[in-house]
Design a protein that fits this description.
It is globular and about 70 Å long. About 5% of the residues have low confidence. By secondary structure, the chain is mostly helical. It has a two-stranded antiparallel ribbon. The protein is about 65% helix and about 5% strand.
């Protein structure tokens, strides 16, 4: 959705610039001047930047911070002790002391599972603000900026070394992710832990910890590339490239052939969605939970988090590995948590769509205001 909006805004700016260069500022069937071209272009650029920052904030806070906390939170249970009530039977006063002791029962314990903090976006953000201050929703932003900056540079260098072929670019993306795995794990630790007095660059995971997440990181990076290669492979198998290069060829087909092409296009689109849900989703959750299992002992988690993963992980001081396996990381992420995360992603998508629609409508309104179609009284 963000790509579509970006394309529309870009086309609007290009159209305005073309009309300015050609001097054609009259509307179709109207001799009224189109309006100041620089004002239209400036309005579209400013609106595009605001839209970009709004969507980036939504993606970072909800798709990054809140989603990561949802992946690692372990709902807690509260125990309530209920003492047995004294017997109200008529013969109770006649019972001997021994009989009363034998009739007495142990207190009953009832466990009530508390609602997860990450069950709602609002409760998660409120919890973060209460625990770490008003800017807690953007926690880890410095690490994220450093990661993406270094990732971009390293990816460009490796792509140039490996060659410009598509498979080479994918290989460069996987290698880049593996090389920066410690920096990515640092971001996860900053996000899921309580505020620390240490600067973020002094909290780097150890090299030994970095070695333990090489495989999960590589699997996640390969899963990301699969969302590109699976649709492209089907696109080539169905021979849809010709219709992309020459759209007029589609009109020359028979109705049955047109239906076949549309079904093939739908299959290509669904393959990308299926890959994201069935491959990328588990890989992302697994990676985050493996990274979280390596959170240093001196750091407390900002949401309830079972470091033992249901007894699957033992600390290194007790002879254990100190890290959860990839299989256990996914298996201990129960269906309730999976549904909660899917629901979060659905909410994020709805927020992004509504935000994009509002900005597109606002951009159209701006252009028409500058053009003089609307007059404010």
């Amino acid at each position: 959705m963000s790509g579509i909006a970006h394309h529309l805004v870009k086309r609007g700016i290009e159209h305005t610039q073309d009309r300015y260069r050609t001097g054609s500022f009259a509307q179709d069937g109207d001799n009224k001047p189109f309006g100041p071209p620089h004002a239209v272009a400036a309005a579209l650029v400013i609106t595009s930047l605001l839209w970009f920052f709004a969507l980036s904030a939504v993606q970072y806070v909800y798709g990054g911070v809140v989603a990561t906390l949802t992946m690692i939170e372990t709902p807690t249970a509260t125990a309530f002790k209920v003492d047995p009530a004294e017997s109200d039977e008529a013969d109770a006063p006649l019972l001997s002391t021994e009989e009363k002791k034998s009739a007495a029962t142990e207190p009953e314990l009832f466990y009530v599972k508390t609602k997860p903090i990450t069950s709602k976006i609002r409760t998660t953000v409120r919890h973060l603000v209460a625990e770490a201050g008003p800017w807690a929703r953007f926690r880890g932003l410095q690490v994220a900026l450093a990661y993406h900056f270094i990732h971009h540079i390293l990816l460009q260098v490796l792509t140039a070394l490996f060659g410009g072929a598509m498979i080479s670019q994918s290989l460069a993306a996987v290698v880049t992710a593996v090389v920066l795995c410690r920096l990515q794990m640092l971001w996860t630790h900053v996000v899921i832990s309580t505020p620390s007095e240490k600067k973020w660059y002094r909290r780097f995971p150890t090299i030994d910890a970095g070695k333990k997440i090489i495989l999960p990181t590589a699997v996640w990076a390969l899963a990301e590339q699969a969302t590109i290669y699976v649709p492209i492979t089907l696109f080539m198998v169905f021979d849809l490239e010709g219709y992309l290069q020459n759209p007029a060829a589609f009109n020359e087909l028979s109705p049955m052939q047109q239906k076949s092409v549309m079904l093939a296009s739908f299959a290509v689109m669904m393959s990308g969605i299926a890959t994201a849900v069935l491959v990328v989703f588990p890989a992302s959750v697994t990676l985050k939970r493996v990274q979280a299992s390596l959170l240093p002992e001196e750091n407390d988690s900002i949401v309830p988090f079972d470091r033992t993963f249901g007894g699957k992980v033992q600390p290194q001081v007790l002879g254990g590995t100190g890290v959860v396996s990839m299989l256990d990381a996914w298996k201990t992420f129960d269906w309730a948590a999976r549904f909660r995360l899917v629901k979060l992603y659905a909410k994020i998508f709805a927020i992004q769509v509504s935000t994009t629609v509002l900005f597109v409508l606002f951009a159209v309104f701006q252009v028409r205001m500058i053009n003089g179609d609307y007059v404010l009284y």
